[in-house]
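User: Modeling request: complex.
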Amino acid sequence: MSNFLTFKSVAICAVLLLGVLMALPNIFGSDPAIQVSREDGTDVVSSSIEEIENLLDGAGISMSSIDLRGNAAIVRFQDNESQLAASVVLREALDLHVVALTLAPRTPRWLQSIGFRPMNLGLDLRGGVYFLYQVDLDTAINQYLESFQGTIMQAFRSENLSVTVSRNNTELQFIFTNQDDLFTAENILFRIDPLLQIEGSIIENQPILNVALSNMQITQRQNLALQQNILTLRNRVNELGVAEPIVQRQGLDRILVQLPGVQDPAQAERILGSTATIEFRLVDFENDPFEADRTRRPPLNSILRYDQAGFPELLRREVIVSGNELTDASFMYSQGQPAVSIRLNAQGASRMLDVTQANLNRPMAVLFIEDSPEIVEVDGEQRLVTSREETVINKAVIRGVFSSNFQITGITPFEGQDLALLLRSGSLATPIVKVEERTIGPSLGQDNIDRGRLAIIVGLLTVMMFMVFYYRTFGLVANVALVMNIVLIVAVLSFLQAALTLPGIAGIVLTVGMAVDANVLIFERIREELRNGVTPIASIRGGYEKALSTIADANITTLIAAVVLFTFGTGPVKGFAITLAIGIVTSMFTAIMVTRLIVNYIYESREKINNLSIGI
Amino acid sequence: MKGNIFDFMRYRNIAAIFSIVLILVALTSVISRGLNLGIDFTGGVVVEAGFSEEINLQSLRVLLAEADYANAMVQNFGSPTDVLIRLEPQEEMDGGVIRDAILAVMSEVESSVELRRVEFVGPQVGQDLIEQGSLAMLFALIMIFIYVTFRFRWKFALGAIGALIHDVLILVGLFSILQMNFDLTILAAVLATIGYSLNDTIVVFDRVRENFKALRGEAAYDVINKCISQMITRTMITSGTTLLVLLALFYLGGETVSGFALALIVGIVIGTYSSIFVASSLIIYLQITSLDFAERKREAVDDLP
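Assistant: Request completed. Predicted assembly structure:
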């Protein structure tokens, strides 16, 4: 007994104290705030902070404080009105900065400094936009195969192999004229990529090589495409100016985007899902585009495209520079015309220099490319199909040599701003399509929090009243455990920084109901022992010991269900499962260990006990 | 050990008939009427908006029909000023387009309409969820079966799983009969019911195991009656307190969680009933005897210090 009071009780108290500390940041609430960070991701400098102060001062908006957090400046306000007004002022005036609305926790500095933060609220509680995108991996694989086709043909030609190529969905088929070439070709292919799956055969005296991507290459490529898309989406989200966004992979081919605080899904969607990019090509001025349009047969080295007015244009097949070779793009007005100013990387710049030098006074075109993926039903199966739209937005004669810096015109201001942003954030490696969208208004979020809190408090109080009524002193002890259980759940959620959602609150409510179960089991056992004439102290011990295996079995089976839910579930199911799982573990701790500690303190320290206050 | 022993198992045949009838009714409804699946599963668009004053739903329906959304379901949500619009999935549906169109219609009715929630779910996401949900349920049942077999005997595992399937079928059947919206949160509630009902069943089984060891030679029928009688106070108190909390959630939690709370309330009532009458009856039908614990005895001795 004395051992129990020394080591174990100290340990239990330490856990409880830690729990209280970790849960503490949640009671301070948060301020409406603005997060100002730099577009390029570097630290916000002190001169910018002065500038912000001056700007807000000038606009007559009062703020409560401004300080640095990470590489961003956080400006706090008394109310939402001044926060909104300030965001308009700052967005207008601050160049090269991203201004985002956020909530800044009022956690005291000493708590922050030990790294304790309040819980993350899910979108259903704080408002915001949620998107789920499906990535068109088939297109990514097709593009990959296409790139191999080019490389392979080049290698074959340089070895003087006479060969024709055709491509179906997943395979390249090379038909040779000479059987001896097969062996050479296989060697070449092995040199290009040993992972390629090669199958040689001779059909009707024709030597044929079928080349397909191996499963490993496909998986690698799919992962790469997903990662590139996630990166691009992150960049775009940052450009949108959203504080604490979440962009992550979900499952095999989906990407989840959460934008807390964003209220306009239309704008976010336009930017996030866009695959818009541009290409620079020389114009084929030697052939007649109208003739090609009529016959539908462009000359061998040209492609047929149309401009915004629908007139045909013939462009050279080779791309001078594509959107991937841009390092920066910004929207501006040039001689009164909306324009996008572009900066190329070294590779692109040197190619642009060569081409402009060699083609002075010849026309060059800017091709605007946009993929629109959509879900269609093929043979009863949902499939993602991407169609590509390419428009010539600008055609101009090269008047001088240029390389890394230039402008493109021929766009509306609206298109220009979006295009600059999209070019800046990089293009999507493969098209994405939105398969799920949820927008929750801020008032609904607050409503959900208030209602959830009220339900928890009322539910908790009625249960507590019942427990005291039925189990007297022991009921009080169980109530302490119950409250500590909630504190611990909040503490663990804060520590894990897992998002608390509405189903999560429901999970907590359910845990409150179930947490008393362990105590009921123990107390009923104690009462049973007492009825059997066992002494009070022995009854307590017997009750706790005998109930233990029951509690463990019952909770472990429920925990299994919670873990399965967490593993297989998404969204709300996951949110529910995580609070339930945490609740099961913490409730076992509080209902068994904490109550035992208190009961021991009350009863076992006394000399002689005649009866227990347990309701009989 | 004394105390009143009530002859619960006398009613096991009546209970069995009752359960079978319930299950048949549930199955019939699920098969013939199906479930009123929410957009989480079917795909579609849901818009929830708050107007400053009560609005005429019929006029909103007419406006939506004019905008080519005649199949839109319009209803009040929680209060007469709040409106919920639901659209079934359509061919070549672009969530963004539909969302913007619905918003335009609503702001025609009142320009200051406040958008509370917009949800668009593509049909393929819903399909995945159904697959994932079924898989999760199946996997949970298998894991539980393994654990209960490991800790108890396979007859207990069968009894527990039987009770779980009983609960799930009746609960899902109820949602089918009432044609209440069955969405992801309801699925979570069904899964939570599995957890809860299991908890209840295990607690009774634990006692059965203990009493079989202590009272060797007694008939299973009597042992189980004794166990249920010993545990009935606990079962009632736990179910009662959980129900108290859920009632609070049902009445105070708002429209969004009321369905969830209701599903759990029903689930706990069924779960409590099934742990007494379904799980326990099943192990009697499976003819459990103290011999089932014969090899267990050695392990039990090992467990002692």
